[in-house]
Design goal:
Rossmann fold, 404 residues, alpha/beta, 3 domains, Alpha-Beta Plaits, six-stranded mixed beta sheet
Length: 404
Amino acid sequence: MSVGLKDIRAAAQAIAGEIVQTPCLFSRTLSGVAGAQLYLKFENQQFTASFKERGALNRLLALDSASRKRGVIAVSAGNHAQGVAYHAQRLGVPAVIVMPRFTPHVKVVHTRSFGAEVLLHGDNFDAAREHATRLIRERGLTFVHPYDDPRVIAGQGTIALEMLDAWPDLDVLVVPIGGGGLISGMAVAAKAINPKIQVVGAETLRFPSMYAALHGTAPHFGEHTIADGIAVKVPGAITLELVRQFVDDIVLVDEGDIEEAMLLLLEVEKTVVEGAGAVALATVIKHRERFAGKQVGLVLCGGNIDPLTLSDIIQRGMVRAGRLTRLHVQMRDLPGSLAQVTRVLGEANANIDEVHHHRAFTTLPVQSAEVEFVVRTRGSEHIQQIVAALAQAGFTASVRNTEI
């Protein structure tokens, strides 16, 4: 079964009223950062915080009565799982979800809350898929593929219909790529509506499966990525052919680029996205010369992230921006020395988060100490002012931030 504009429009009618028609808004501040006019599609505002609902619902609606009664099964690291579980529950269809053992806890909890039977199996998607295959044979369940299914692809393509309806003059769509369901559906719709529009895929450097498939090279994978939602090692057969036909290019971004984009979206747009949800913005910022001056539509495809992971990303971002730093200060190990240093830091408007006093773990002479301060600052220039103030007071200080 091929996928065309007719299928995507039919999917839009089928799922209308059952998914959120999320806003697609112009971001003045991020446009200034990127040097292009950026329009953000907030798919992280779906009920399950991901675009995956669209394709999952469109596939479930196509089940016959016998298949609905037996139930469905899906394999997912989280977002597809939640989309299938939520809409299966609404439609009264039993759902089994197989997830890798190390799936973020928040995604497991949310999936179970929608009434699905959740099975944690294997260390990766492939192992989970093998287990699901056995269950399909044993229970007669219908497999709802996360991306390589025409109805799923058509459902995801409805995002492009909404974006181009809101902003018909867009020059480029930048779309995250995992297995390819989202970008292939969107590219089919966008090119049918406006053949001149460019569709650019955004993929992680650690999981460049679609990029490698298009370029005929052997992909090299990292152990993990912050964009776990698109950490796919093998693209779909259907999606690969659609990407070959309709996608103009694929661009790779690394972990630091993604983290920076996540933090920007949090600070500027006051919106939480997971790693995959920030990949499109990371692409435009890293490759700004490619998109300079153009009207660019970005898909913020999901917002499911563990709060502890988000906290780590915020802290790492503060370090990169110079707003959180580690100072190592040398001093005589005498009463009052530490008080002198903290006084200088206070007068320099440095807010102390942590203090670690080292006597044994140092190469300084006996009766000397090295104290590590973690301080909040206004940025890199402020850090240099603090170091200068300490030097003026007679203390040698150095900045020892771990490279991120």
